[in-house]
Amino acid sequence: MSPRVGVVLGSGLGAFAEHVEGGVRIPYGEIPAMPSSTAIGHKGELVLGRVSGVEVAVLSGRFHLYEGYSAQQVVSGIRLLYELGVRTVLLTCAAGGLNLEYAEGALVLLSDHINLQGANPLVGPNDERLGPRFPDMTEAYSADLRKLAKRTADDLAITLHEGVYAAVLGPSYETPAEIRFLKHIGADLVGMSTVAETIAANHLGMRVLAIACVTNLAAGLGSGKLVHDDVLAIANRVSGTFLKLVSALVPQLAQS
Ligand code: HPA
Predict the structure, then answer these.
(1) 102-136 pLDDT per residue, tens
(2) Ligand 1 pocket test: which of 182, 193, 215 has the largest number of ligand atoms within 8 Å of its C-beta?
């Protein structure tokens, strides 16, 4: 097995892993390259198999900074995918929507990001075998892949927006004042993941495509309080559409 395409599944989007054909499942606990889960309980597995006939490596479950993992640990899955031969990675995540054009359940391609997590996985001595000391981030999310994703979504009559993702540390949700600030600095989305992985993937010279599911309007923009279970429920609700889109995208990511 030599997958060229990797997929990282975000909160509530894990159902995709069930659709990997002939999937071999390896719990993270059995993979030495992944952080030990003894300190902080979490489940997750690497799924190797085929989607639409194409070999893929799927990270079902990711590590977050807010769980107490270091930025280096957070990106261990990305580096593992690279070692497996993956050169194009599709990152998925749940996010709060700041852009009022996004309704709950909207799917949004990340066009760029703003890293406000106070952490970067490349801090420390640089391993030149992995990539350069100062990697360029001008096109962190491949423009070609975004075009491809939009075309694919159009063909399936799926609306796919595009926007800038602000990454925060969490785990508390933002205050309405913080959301006003994020809007002011150009964010369309806010979330607690994805950005460290994107940095590590760019460092490795991988092509990155990222799709967020807007699970809620960001704090202060909707009517009520933010509750994680609601976030998961919305992500689950769109999982059918998401599955269709990603299943159609994977073979094209392998080809392009
Ligand atoms: N804020 C941060 N992360 C999130 C949100 C949010 O509103 N929704 C889903 N992940």
Answers:
(1) 999 999 999 999 999 999 999 999 999 999 999 99
(2) 215
| 189-208 residue pLDDT tens | 999 999 999 999 999 999 99
Residue 111 main-chain phi, psi, to 5 deg: -95, -25
d(CA 152, CA 131): 31
CATH number of 5-255: 3.40.50.1580
Residue type present at position 7: V
Give the β-pairing of 107-115 and 207-217.
antiparallel
Residues present in the chain in total? 256
Q: Are strands 207-217 and 88-97 parallel, antiparallel or unpaired?
A: parallel
Rounded distance, CA 16 to CA 14, Å? 5
